[in-house]
Records
---
Amino acid sequence: RVDLGIVSYPTALRGLSVIPLRSEEMVVACHAQHVLAGRKGVTLQGLAGEKFVAFDRDLPIRKEIDRQLRQQGVTVEVVLELDNIETIKQAVEIGAGLSILPEPTVCKEVQIGTLSAVRLRGIALQRPIGIIHRDRAVFSPTTSRFVELLEKMPVAKLAEAG
C-alpha cells in the first residue's frame, strides 16, 4: 500500500487526485565542447538537424517535447531513446547528441563541467511535477508533514548568466 507518489506530468484519474508541486524549466543539455555550449540561449529552430538523445516515445515528457518540435517545424536526428534522465545525461556527456532536460536535473553536471545547459528562447517548455494520491485518502501526520516539506522545497536552478 502506497500513500502517495511523486510524478512528472501528473494526471488525475478515476480514484486518484493530484497535488501540484512545481514546474521545472526545460533546457538544452549538451556536451561541454558542443558548439551550443556556453551560449545564453537557443531557439528550437537552432536545434534543427542536431543529433538528439530522446526519452522513450511512450513517456509524457517525450510527447510534449515532440509536440513542441512539431509545432515549430523542427526536425532533429534521434540517435537514442532512453527511459530515464540519468542515462540520457550520460549519453549527452559522452557526446552522443544533445537533449532537452529539466533544469534541476543537470545542475550538478553543469557545475562540474561535464554538461552545458542552454536556455530555450521563444518557448516556455516546462515539466510539471506533482503528488498523486488516492481520492479521499487520509494522510498520517508523518505523510502530511512530508507533503508540506515537498511543497516548500526550493527548486535547484542554474545561475543566470550575464
---
Amino acid sequence: MLSELSNIQILSILHSVLPVCLLALFWSWESWAAFKPVEKKTRYQHAFHNLLLAILNTLFLGLLFGASVEITSRWSLEHNWGLLNQLPLGTVGKTIFAVIILDGWTYCWHWMNHRIPFFWRFHRMHHSDPYMDVSTATRFHWGELTFSTLFRLLLIPLLGLQAWQIIVYGLLVFLSTQFHHANISIGRADRLFRWLFVSPDMHKIHHSQLLQETNSNYSTVFSIWDRIAGTYRMRSDLKNIHFGLPDFDSPQWQTLLGMWKTPFSKKTSTQDQKRCQEP
C-alpha cells in the first residue's frame, strides 16, 4: 500500500513538473527554429495571456474537483466495478488498454466539441488563437475543462480506471499536445511520425480557418483514430495556413477577459453556424 501510494505521489509530481519542463523545451525550440516567425513582442503577449489562463484554470479545477479522481477510482476498485477489473490482464496489459481506450474517448470528446453547438461555444476559444505555438496547448476555457472532467469521472467506474492510469495518460497528453501545438517542424520525419502519433504538421491543419480542415485531425496522442473514422486530412502548403477564427481574432478576444467571454458571446457567423453541420 505504501509502495502504491508512493508511485501515485511520484506520478503526481511528474504531472505537475513535466508540463513546465516541456513548455520550456518547446519554447526554446520555437525560439531557435520557428516554423512561422512571429514578432517577439506579439509572441510574449500571446504566451502571457494563454499561460495566465492556464494557471487560473488549474487553480479553479483543483478547487472544484480536488481528489475526486482518486476517490472515484478507489471506490471503483473496492466494489470491483468497471471493464478493466473484469479482464484477465496484468498491470502492464491493463495500463496499455486504459491508455488506448482513454485516447479513443478523447477523440470522441474532441469530435463532440466540434459537432455539438453547445460544446463548440466553449471549444472555439481554443481555436480563436491566431498564433499557434506551445502556449496554445494550454489555452482552454474553464467550461470545456469542467465538462471534460465530469465525463472523465463517469468513465472511471464504467472502465474501472485507476488514478495512476489516468495520470500516466495525462503525461502522454501533455507531451503530445505541447509537441504538436508548438510552432515547430520535424521536416520529413513528420510523414513517418504521423502514421502512429499526432504530429505538428498534422495538427496545424486542425487549427486552420478553413471549416473542412478545422473539422479534421481530432486525435490527441495516436493518429489512428482519424484514419479509422475518416477524419484524417493533410496538405503540403502548411505555411499558407491561417490560424484562428475570423470572427474572434481581434485583440479584444485575445485578452483574459475576452477569452473568458468567448463562449457567451452572441457573435456568430455563417462559418460558425455551418461548423457543426459539416459532414
---
Amino acid sequence: MEQYINRKATAHIRVVDEQGNALKSAAFQAELTKHDFLFGCGAFDALPLTNEKKGDAFYEERMHKWLKLYNFGTMSFYWGAYEEQENAPAYESRMNASKYLKERGKTVKGHPLCWHTLCADWLMKYDNKTILDKQLERIHREVTAFAGVIDMWDVINEVVIMPAFDKYDNGITRICREYGRVNLVKEVFAAARAANPKAVLLINDFNLSDRYVRLIADCLEAGVQIDAIGLQTHQHQGYMGTEKLGEIIERFAGFGLPLHFTENTLVSGHIMPSHIVDLNDYQIPEWPTTIEGERRQAEEMEDMYRFLFANPLVEAITGWDFTDGAWLGAPSGVLRTDNSEKPSYHMLQDLIHREWHTSEKIHTDENGMAVLTGFKGTYTLTGEKACGTFQLGQEGDCITVTCLPSK
C-alpha cells in the first residue's frame, strides 16, 4: 500500500460551463494550491514587516521565503507583550500581521489565550476572582475581534505544570491553584467557544506524559469540547526519533481527536546538554549553526515529517523557529540569521511542494466527467476552454466544477 494513501482521495470531477452544460472531451490541468494538511511555522516575522518595519527589504525577503514554504502560521498573543498596559492591547499590530497571512491564503492560529508564562504583570493587583474574570474577558475580546481572520486558537498552554509553576508569581498560576486545572480549562474553553463557535480550539502542552493524558481525559469527562490536542517537541537535546514519536501518538490516540505537533525544534548546532531540565535555563552567549549540524538537522527533520505525515491522526506540524536564534538563541530555524536557506528549508520545499504535491492532466469524457487522485486540498482546474477551483476531500466524492470561459 502506498505510504501516504490516507492523505489522498480519488474523486469524480464533472466540469460544466456557467449554464451547467458539460464540457465534453476536454483536457484540464488539476493543480494542488493548498494542502488540507497544515504545514506550519511560527509567523512572528510578519509582525515587524506589517508594522514598524513595513517595507523593509530584509523582512520582505524573509517573509517571501516563509510564504513559499508554509500554509499555516502561528501568531503570538502572549498577554504580557500583547497588553503591557491594562486596556491597551496591541490589536492593530496583530491584526495587520494576521491579515497579511490570511490574504495570502494562509491559515492563522493564535497562541496562546491563557498561559502562566509571559503573563500580564498588572493582573497581580487583583484578587483571584477578578483575575479569572479578566482572563475570560481577554479571551472573549481576542476571539471575537479576530474571528474570520483567526479561527484557530491554542486556548490554554502548558496547564499540566501551571499550578506548580514556581519560577515567579503570576496571576494565572494563582487562579489555577485556586480553581483547579480542569475547572480552569473548562472556563477558558467555554469562553472561547462562545466567542467563536466555529473556531478550532486546542489544548497545548510540552509535558507529553500520562499526566497530560489524564488531564485531557478529565477535561473531556467534565464536558470540555477540545477540537485538537497540541503536542510540543522542542528537541534541543537531540532528536527523539520515530519510535518515541510513535509512542507519543499511541499515548494520545485513544481520544480519537486530531493531533497537532504545535511547536517543534531541531537544532543545527551543538546539542544542548542532557542534564538541563528546563530548556529556558540554558542561556549561552552564542549558539552557532554548523555545516555538520545543518546536515543532521535536515536529515532528522525529514525523518520526523515523513513519519508524522504518514499517520492519519496527525493534522498539523509546526516548526517553531523560522530563523536561527528566534527562541533561546538556538540554531533551530530553517533560515540562518542572514535569511540564507539551510538544507532543512530545501528539504521541506522538496517534500511539501514536489513529492507531496499533485499536478495532473485530466480529460473529461462525453458526459464531462473525469477522475482525479491526489493529495487532499484546494485545487485549480485550468484548460483551453475554461478554469475553476474545487476541494478534493473525501474518497469517492462527486465534485462539480463550474468554469468560466478562458480569456
---
Amino acid sequence: GYELYDRSLGAAAHTAASDAELLFNVLSHAEHQALMGRKTMFINCTHESLVGRHLELIHPERVVLEIPPLEGNSPAEIEARLPVLMEVKRKGFRLAFSQVMLTRPYAAWLPLASYIKLDMSQLKPELIEPLVKFAQKHCTAKLIAEKVETAAQHELAAQHGIKLFQGYWFATPVLVK
C-alpha cells in the first residue's frame, strides 16, 4: 500500500482541513489510478477529520485511516472518541493505530484496529516480542513494523512474526505534487 501524508505541514499544523485538502488533491490528480493502482491507501488523519464529509468521496475498501493517539491519553477523551471511530469502522473503513493502542487506556479501541504500527525507531528490541504476543492475544489487527531503516530491524521484526514493513530500508518517500 501507500501512505499519504502531507509533509509540507508540521505536526501542529495538521488539521481536518489539511486532511481534506490532501484527499481532494490526490483524488483530483489526473493520474491517481497510476499513483495507487490497486494498492491500499493509508491516510494519516486527525480525529476532527473523521467526521468530515470528504470521506464520502473515497471507497472504504481501498483506504486505511491512520488514527493518532490523543495528546495526554486522557481516559475520558479516549472514551468520548469511541463512537466516532465505531461509526467510521461501520462505514467500512479500516483503522490503523500506533503501538500506543497496546496500552491500557486504549483497550476499548483495540477491537477496532485493522492494523497496528510498531515504530522500530522508538521501541527497544526487548519490547518487540512482548508487544507482538500481547497484540496476537488481544486483537486480530495485522502488525506493521514501521520506520524500518536497517537489516537488523527488519530481521528482528520478522523473527517475531511481523510480515508487513514500512521504512527507508525498503523505499524512500516519493513526493507527489
